[in-house]
Amino acid sequence: MREIYMDHSATTPVDREAFEAMIPYYTNEYGNPSSVHAKGRAARKALEKARDQVAALINADSREIFFTSGGTEADNQAIISYMLSNAARGNHLITSAIEHHAVLETCEYLRKNGFELTVLPVNSLGIVEPEVLRKAIRPETALVTIMHANNEIGTVQPIEELAAITHEFGAVFHTDAVQTAGKLPIDVKRMGIDMLSISSHKLHGPKGAGCLYLKKGTKAGNILYGGPQESKKRAGTENIPGIVGFGQAAELAAGRMTETSEYLNRLATKLREGIMADIPHTIPTGSLDNRVPGSVSVCFEFVEGESILLMLDSYGVMASSGSACTSGSLEPSHVLLAIGLPHETAHGSLRLTLGKDNTEEDVDFVLEILPKIIGNLRKMSPLSGKGGSN
Amino acid sequence: MYSQKVMEHFMNPRNVGSLDEANGVGEVGNAVCGDIMHIEIEVEDNIIQDIKFKTFGCAAAIATSSMVTEMVKGKTLEEAERITNRTVAEALDGLPPIKMHCSNLAADALHEAIKDYMARQEKS
Description:
heterodimer, A: alpha/beta, Aspartate Aminotransferase, domain 1, Aspartate Aminotransferase, domain 2, 7-stranded mixed sheet, 3-stranded antiparallel sheet, 12 strands, B: alpha+beta, Sufe protein. Chain: A, about 50% helix
């Protein structure tokens, strides 16, 4: 059976070139970069090369890149360490209702431990409106953390405006760029970003690596203690093979970004328009104008997401959903509820996120089977007769 | 995560639809929590002669609905009343723990349909 992977917001395959760059650091060059000897020096050299490669992706200085185990750790470090290090500045932080749990639950942890938290609402497209931030920010606000683009509905935030407002009030701006790094141009200097999180495995690098960008002079510290690694900001022996693969993948992503994003936009537009044309009672979610390349997200009324995913899977098509059954809880995704969808609509969510290896034939195949799948599930649904047809 | 039997019933559900001659109808669940099971039965001489379902929900919801219709077709009302959500899940070789609560309501829908049938008999 043909395999069609359309879940690139969850994870991506490792670029062949990145994988090959990693191998020597598992076999011959297994040194610890903290060691003085030749193998240690080789590992150190590889580590610093990767740092340069990742820094170049976001126009940062290499000394501003601190490797972590991934996006989640980077988010935790940025938020927790910044708030703890700047308690004198203020104990208020601001985030948005559609953040990844790595940010939301970290902010919630701080709230439970005495910090004040404001969670900004989003509009129906999933955008944090700059004026909403302006109303919520206060003199004692130390940190504003708002994601660059949402993982479920693909909406890209007006980061530059949000960062500018944050700075007017003397606070620091963090963004989780896990969904955009390597896909959309990021210039931390031009955009006014003080802290930024990246995950390697979302940009065709290996799992288990990521980084936190900390603008020079930003007073953030550790959450892991016990060693001087990463300029004393992140203890623990560095995951050298993972970091090498991350660096290589970042360089490759930067090199092909324009071409790939045009390609992905074209495929995603065809897929979304095909779905909207062929399947009635379908609601597109997120912004169509400000969107991560390759992301298609919709809700089908009268059917449930997990059923859609398993039916697609039986044809070899791999996708995801924000329905309750797939979130592992009894509630559908907080993102879909935050953009104002009723529960019953949110249960029918489907996310198809394309990658550079997807083809036009993949899109045609999904457009061939998806109307049948939704049609069959709707025939089985007691809601179809009540709310509409098909 | 699902047993082969669950997947088999999900992919090829039995007795989907509605009955022209239904004399008992049951529905449980709601759209907010993501599961609705609707069952229609046709009872004659105390025996469930025919049964159909419509379900909105995940694979477990659809598979349990399909299974319960298969289990009670041709059975007496007393036999049907003895079927529980648990026995339906067992007949499917089990369900993941999280699904036991939210998506395992098919026997409840059946019992509602039987109750509706009984109420209609009393009236007539």
